[in-house]
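Researcher: Here's my situation. A collaborator sent me these components and asked whether they could plausibly form a single complex. I don't have experimental data yet, so a predicted model of the whole assembly would be a useful starting point for our discussion.
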Amino acid sequence: MGGTKNKAVYLKSYPAGLPGPSHFETRVVETPAPRDGEMLMRTVWMSVDPYMRGRMRPDVKSYVPPFSLDQPLDGGAVSEVVESNNSGFKKGDYVVAFQGGWKEYWISNGDGLTRVDPGLAPLSAYLGVLGMPGLTAWAGLTQILQPNPGDTVFVSGAAGAVGSVVCQLAKIKGARVIASAGSKEKCDWLLKEGGADVALNYRDYKNAGALTKALAEAAPDGINCYFENVGGMHLEAALNNIAFGARIALCGMISVYNNTELEPGPPNLAFLIARSAKMQGFIVSIYLHLAMQFASEVAPLLAQGKIKFRESVYDGLDEAPNAFIGLFHGENFGKAVIRVGPDRA
Amino acid sequence: MGGTKNKAVYLKSYPAGLPGPSHFETRVVETPAPRDGEMLMRTVWMSVDPYMRGRMRPDVKSYVPPFSLDQPLDGGAVSEVVESNNSGFKKGDYVVAFQGGWKEYWISNGDGLTRVDPGLAPLSAYLGVLGMPGLTAWAGLTQILQPNPGDTVFVSGAAGAVGSVVCQLAKIKGARVIASAGSKEKCDWLLKEGGADVALNYRDYKNAGALTKALAEAAPDGINCYFENVGGMHLEAALNNIAFGARIALCGMISVYNNTELEPGPPNLAFLIARSAKMQGFIVSIYLHLAMQFASEVAPLLAQGKIKFRESVYDGLDEAPNAFIGLFHGENFGKAVIRVGPDRA
């Protein structure tokens, strides 16, 4: 049996600074026929996530190995089993995995696949609110920030795939939520649907001093919890406003991912001492063992409409580089997903 | 009954930058006679501590109120009860308190005094290894860093009142200890008596890059715990070397206490994310409820000679400003204490 001709996106060169279209190239590849125990998978939805930028630095030791040049990129995807020589899965099954992204077809031996239920939520949700971003949000909130009812929770990147879930879960847990996002449209959504009590458009604040003042007005008793997706002036302004005993979950610092030189950190870290506050970094993989607990808490909230989610949908594999590049320009609203092939679920 | 003529040190002006002798003035004062329920206290030993610098900034909200100009300074001291109209204490009792420093005599109503046993340890030890610095070291280590046997613990300011206790307790708990201090003499003591496996004289390293390299050689598997007393290049170098799941206890940042402008923080905070590491600031007062547990663990170790301590002793109240100023020049080796009056215990 012959292979399947299809498309995959290759990394042509490592970006220095912001990634652009020239760093990527779509090529036609031949996916081999599945052997014994293997399956031919069709990628339906793929994810682009900020952490992928870290895999585009050959020189930096990170928690995932760097991508190789002149090889197809990889990443999280929801795929359909098209042909199965594996007794664990049958044709027509849908699975989510940390594999399958950036290509139309791929071969799996079944390792690392989680079957998903198209009846519970749209397939793409398994890349967002019910997937890695949702687990990231839930784990940072429940394992690190642990807000008490009445606490003030500040969330940066609040309209993003992670931040929007943090805001809504924090609100459900009885916290007062201050959200920061990069447009009026995002702020409006956060106030109306996203669980925010206050929404700040950070583009209105030219530096950390201005944002510090806005936060002080929004949180006169200080910030008890800060979910950090952004870095830079957000972290400095948040530190200026932390309450005694505050917790900061460091999830991402998208503002610095494309810097070619390291930029200085906040000058006010010593506030952590005076306010006996904690700052804890995390990657979602350390909480994978809690995935079932996460799903059993969040899936019903989603089904009941108590958690809303937004997606920026890109159509076709050729759009994947643009979706990824958009992450660093604030162009996506909610989870950025690419419909690689027809979703018939 | 008349008052007692004696001396007290006044704050003449708030230092901008490093404190110097001109910011202080010794004046003769009259301490009134104790009234009903009060006692006349004689200060035997007083403490100077880095946190006092924070009380010399009228404009900065800190965890203790600022000192007033043209008033006597105050701070921790061991005092003798000279005259008692308080049924809780009798003449000849020795007490430690967050009061009594910077003066020869003072009046107490008994609040905030802890009786100390001159038979258990020298009186001055209640300002150091058995006092607030000792509790600070023990709490940061046991409540935040929680080293496992075999972990690598890095301690900056390691020859100081806090750091030297951290090193020895960490060693007793089975950790491998890397100490940083500011002279060969201090490093020699740390290796011989202070529990250090490796001692780095930070003056040999001209920047964070050089210190990063030295730490990488000393801790090839990374640093699991970092006890931070210093800030600046120490924090940056430590972050470059943290192991996955590392804990950082932020106790002090003496390198920045005298800055008139905030200096940038470390550029590599994002390592906290990739290595799922925690940085927790604390002030010792949040652990005061553990003081008995601390004393019951550390006092026997001291009595058995398993914990050693060093003191820089200054003689006479007039020397107190010099002792304080010395804190910021690395001039003290171990706890800086001032013998204000004769120690007859």
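Model: Some features of this prediction you could bring to your collaborator: Residues 106 and 306 of chain B are 36 Å apart (CA to CA). Residues 132-285 of chain B form a domain with the Rossmann fold fold (CATH 3.40.50.720).
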